[in-house]
UniProtKB/TrEMBL annotation:
It comes from the Eukaryota. Residues 1-24 form the signal peptide. It comes from Deinandra increscens subsp. villosa. The keyword NADP does not apply. Gene3D superfamilies: Cupredoxins - blue copper proteins (2.60.40.420). This is Phytocyanin domain-containing protein. Residues 56-170 form the Phytocyanin domain. Keywords: Signal. SUPFAM superfamilies: Cupredoxins. The keyword Transmembrane helix does not apply. PANTHER family: GLYCINE-RICH PROTEIN-LIKE, OS06G0216700 PROTEIN. GO terms for molecular function: electron transfer activity.
Length: 173
């Protein structure tokens, strides 16, 4: 007797569940006009999958290039996300008689060094001459955070805004 009750209960539960799904489906399909209205069937999401986009070449700072007095942390936040194999291009003039405060590019080992602009364990990836011409190119080819900073004036440039970090991500398509 108890077993029969259990079976009946299960049966009812299953029916209710099926009915529930059925009715919610019905509701779902009640408003295809709305759905059609909201979604543009000729738009992006409904096209064939796009081929993998070729890696981008991104000028750090945009038209500001790599210079003193610009906040690169803000720039990086506005330009995120960055992807695997994106190339960052640092453009800065090599030193000469008039350009007496040139720049450089260092990689800091961790967030702590980054926050403090502590260059003690930093690795120089570009010296003051490497940013001329087409600029110094750095490819984001590892899945790790990259902490960039200018290493000039003993951390003063870094503290004044010449630093940013990026974490390259995978593309979804
Ligand atoms: C649908 O998307 C295409 C391409 O994105 C656009 O040219 C067209 O104007 C859109 N149509 C409507 C009705 O939004
Ligand atoms: C990045 O580039 C390397 C070398 O060109 C290639 O082997 C790798 O598949 C690329 N990775 C992605 C995620 O595009
Ligand atoms: C020195 O560098 C500045 C830019 O910082 C550039 O405008 C100028 O032409 C350079 N002078 C020489 C002699 O190369
Ligand atoms: C920068 O490095 C290059 C070699 O990659 C070297 O020839 C040049 O003298 C260096 N410049 C400075 C200012 O250290
Ligand atoms: C740069 O911008 C970030 C984010 O808005 C801010 O936290 C930071 O203090 C700014 N740096 C400087 C040197 O102004
Ligand atoms: Cu600098």
């Amino acid at each position: 007797m108890a077993l029969m009750y259990t079976r009946l209960l299960v049966l009812i539960t299953v029916s209710v569940t099926l009915f529930g799904v059925g009715s919610s489906n019905a509701n779902y399909q009640k408003g295809p006009q709305n759905w059609r209205f909201d979604f543009n069937y000729t738009g992006e999401p409904f096209r064939h999958p796009k081929p993998i986009q070729s890696s981008r070449r991104i000028i750090v700072g945009g038209s500001n290039n790599w210079r003193f007095g610009f906040n690169y942390t803000e720039w990086a936040m506005k330009n995120a996300p960055f992807f695997f194999n994106d190339t960052l291009v640092f453009k800065f003039d090599p030193p000469n008689d008039t350009n007496i405060h040139p720049h450089s590019v260092y990689l800091l080992p961790n967030l702590w060094s980054f926050l403090r602009c502590d260059l003690r364990w930093a690795k120089r990836v570009a010296n003051t001459s490497h940013g001329g011409g087409e600029g110094f190119e750095f490819v984001l080819n590892k899945w790790k955070p990259y902490y960039f900073a200018c290493g000039e004036s003993n951390g003063f440039h870094c503290q004044s805004g010449m630093k940013f970090f990026v974490m390259p991500t995978f593309r979804w398509y």
